[in-house]
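Question (not urgent): is this output format expected?
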Amino acid sequence: MFGGRSPFGSNNPQREGYSRPPQGYPPQGYPPQQGAPGYGSPSPRQPAPGGRPLPQAPMGGRPSEGGWRLKVMENADKGYQFRNFVALSTQDFPRAQFGQEDILIIVNNRNVFTARPADGFPPGYIGLSGVQRPWAGAGLRDELLIQIYDPFRQGGEAYLGSADIEVRFAGKSRTDELYDQDDLAASVIKNFESQLFAPGQPVLMDHRGIPLQLRVKTILRVSLTSEKETSKEPETDPTARGILTKHTMINFFKDPESNIQIKPAKNRPAANAIIQPDFNTEKMGIGGLDSEFHTIFRRAFASRIFPPDIVQKLGIQHVKGILLFGPPGTGKTLLARQIGKMLNAKEPKIINGPEVLNKFVGQSEENIRKLFADAEREYKEKGDESELHIIIFDELDAVCKQRGSGAGGGTGVGDSVVNQLLSKMDGVDQLNNILLIGMTNRKDMIDDALLRPGRLEVHVEISLPDEAGRAQILGIHTQNMSQSDLLDPSVDVAELASLTKNYSGAEIAGLVKAATSFAFNRHIDSGKTVRVKDDAAEMKVNHSDFIHALDEIQPAYGVSEDEIKRCIEHGIITYSEKIGGVLKDGEALAKGLGHPDQTPLWSVLFNGPPGSGKTALAAQIALDSGAPFIKMICPEDIAGFSEQAKIQHILRVFNDAYKSQTSVVVVDDIETIIDYVSVGPRFSNSVLQTLKVLFKKRPPKNRRLLVLATTSQRALMKELNIYTSFNSDIDVPNVTSHEELNHVMAKSGVFTNEQIAEALARIDTLKGETAYSITFGVGIKKVFDGIELAKKTPTELVNQFVRFVNSAVQEGALATRGPRVQAAEEFEFS
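Got this back:
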């Protein structure tokens, strides 16, 4: 076009088919020297077109702060509209000055257009069509800044290697004819070659007498010296512009709202591609679900990207259903919504499970049929060329319970709804244009027939996020305040991610809101009147705000700190080598919990006399394990429960433990939990069998569980055949010597050395032999009870403690001589 010469002062390489963009030679009087005013506006030495003063010329061909101020008017010329031209006056832009008919302009430093000056167009105006004005963000009679544009301002990658363009009918004229993509591409190049295209840009084109509207979705630019595309991702930024050439590969996609039909091409993606061309996974706003999203994409959408003829040759059917299950607040609904946005399909139908049910007979089933009516109608008309219809079904377990369970009441409505849904998804008349995304917290309640391949065949667990996922979620929720400079530099997202173990996505969002509430509170003056302080503009959310928020927002699947701390109220005192050995064994168990190459389940039984500290040791070991999920099953938590309610409570704790990567469950006082009494004997066999199964049940893949159980009757555990459910047995002894008691009293900090010596001299021996050769003593819990009692009467400190401990020792000795002592049971049951 310029004889191989660049109008910008350098000879950029030009390949065949890569013509120059519309642009004129600089007019007479433009100095070509380096640093002089370059091409981009009229020369300062030239008279102003139309008699108006001209701005300073930009340097090096780049737009400057100067330019022309023109008002917008309607451009009704069809020749301009269907060639994507904007109209200018030749009085403002003389052809002689610019050297050729078309020039490139940038409007308001944002959008680039190809302008063609016209003799009859009024000066001081710019003519934009109804399609171009929204793209330029301009209304009629708005004043715009117009500057000459240098297409090489973005570097060497100025040409389009490929472009994804969405097509729809632009007017009332329609046709059922299939549009050939090669034919469309030739028409685009014929009408718009050498023009600049940018993502989001709308363009009108007359193709065989029918007006079409094109919208650029993505572009991929290439270097001036190479026809090959770069390895970077397609661009969706509207400021990324490229010159259309005859070598540009154009991929066409139909607009979801249009009924235009595009013929599939083997060398191009499907015209009704399932994935939005400009979709970016990084902008989904979902943190910690990368692997789950990739699994969904591979299983459910990979086959839909390929041309239909390839899928037909493979003889496979597309996936029709996805089930997202997992704990509440982990992002199931959010992921389903983002999948709906990602897909180039009809607007998803979102329905909550309970909304399907209706009090009138047959209406619930009718509601299910209505969900599929549009998909059925279109599939009958267009077959495999029909668009994808997405149904997002939240709380699926509300209407799709196991048939025959009686969950639907005496009317059997629940069973009928399930039957209707089964027939619609994979019945006699199969649909290949539907995708049902179901979400539930209770996968176990859903009917098995709905979960088979052909229906909801892709099952994806949306579990609690790991540390990297929590960091992503925190980054998403703090992004706005960080960009607005409202996040203090002291806030470390990585540190917060490590402190929020087992927090769900919803709980992390609540944590950020709670942190901002502390920041708000600092800048509120709550005197006689509540008002915002004058320094509110300086508000920042800092590290301490998040630390305070962590105390308020506790994870549902976290550590039962209150219960654990109640068990170790007095701390752990290592008063003997045996107790130190128990803690070392617990430390080894905790280390094994974090090693993936070791067994995923380990069950331990702590046995010993009542009050010997079994529960406290088990609770301390659980805390030291560092597991994000620690729960206790205690008799006081299920007191008054029916047998079935107790079983449900126990199952719920273990099922929650399976949802965490590593978990510890403490089952305290097994004999009380199973309602065992020595008179009778009587116990709950159903609860016992539940515990036996759970103590041996391995957790799901990539999950690890440590079970710590306590009992005061090991022989009974053997008799009930639950003892074999444990991998190891740890004996917890009483305080059995004056030396051990001396250590406990000294660590308590209540007694002086003289008082300790006096007390020990007056306390009976703590060690004796019974008829069954069993040593007795006093439980550590009794010792602490004696210390607490003695503290109530400081003047009688030693006397109260001595009387209490002597009484406990005598009770222990008598208990060991009773008919139900542990040694006797072991002897009788051996």
